Amino acid sequence: MESAVGVDLHERVTQIAVLGPGEQVQQYRVPSEEEAIARVLARVPRGTRVAVEATRAWWWFVDQAEAAGYPVVLSHPKQTKAIAAARLKTDRVDAAMLARLLRADLLPTVWIPGPHERQWRELVTHRARRTIINELYAVYAKRHVRLPGRVWLRAEPVAPRVNDLSGAAPGLVERDVTVLRLLNTQIADVDAELARHAQADPGARRLLSIPGVGPMPALAVRSWVGDVRRCAQAKQLASYFGLAPRVRQSAAHTHRGPISKEGSRVVRWLVVQAALSGIRFAKGPTRRHYLRVLRRRGRPIARIAAARKLVGIMFQLLRHEMDYDAFVSWGRHAQ
Fold first, then answer.
1. pLDDT of 53-84, one tens digit each?
2. 121-146 average pLDDT score
3. Where are the domains of the chain?
4. DSSP-derived 3-state class of residue 72
5. What CATH number labels 4-110?
6. Which pTM value belongs to this model?
7. Which of 56, 187, 272, 323 has a 20 to 30 Å separation from 211 between CA atoms?
């Protein structure tokens, strides 16, 4: 029986469990440093599979282990917890459980993105100013001071109606607007870099041909999906982004609830915004689907339905390597 390694990775310390050919487990607790981890891995034959949870700090560990000749499997934290919930939870127990599930081929896994996808993900998530904008809206809303639409989304935002604000609000708003101007300058640089990467990637260029889809949602979808052939159907891609409804079934009763909201919140938000932009400015299958659902179910559900429709179109473009115009023409011929 082959060996397996389970790793409970933390910022300062790492617990490594080596499961031998039998059931004997050797435990090592070392600092989260490359040299210390390399000494432990050197005790294991090369080619031994290593399991580690998909925490925020897995990048460097995966790169180091794979460069040393140890294939890494990234476990799905939520599903692994559901399978291997234990009354006693320690780093030793977690590492050993990862190793046992890996050797038994029962470990729920997630896809490991490559260097390009990781770089795109960082650029997409770096372009964020929503926290400051939400704080500004809250300051005005608490004092019931109305604002013109999209006032904070301008390239050079100003602080409107500051004199109508009470307490410490004027100073807070002035400071936040100053930070927002600086962020807008930096975001313009990030947008230019995102556009360059999107134009250089064939898959992202196909997504850019869809009305309403810009470089940011195009690269977000590409970086979180990777090879779209991992999904057999468009429904699986929608579920991957958390846009599929929750289903509860018992005997003959089936209940469909709200969307699952699994996966990346950033990508889900970008896809919804791209769908709404396409609905507003272009006539096509997404807009027609939105209007049909709007009449029957109302605006909130119609927006999610439009986003799912957009994800389906993205799936077809990536899977069949075509642009949007070819997809629309192909759909007409199919009808």
1. 888 789 899 999 999 999 999 998 888 876 66
2. 82
3. 4-110, 130-200, 205-334
4. strand
5. 3.30.420.40
6. 0.80
7. 187
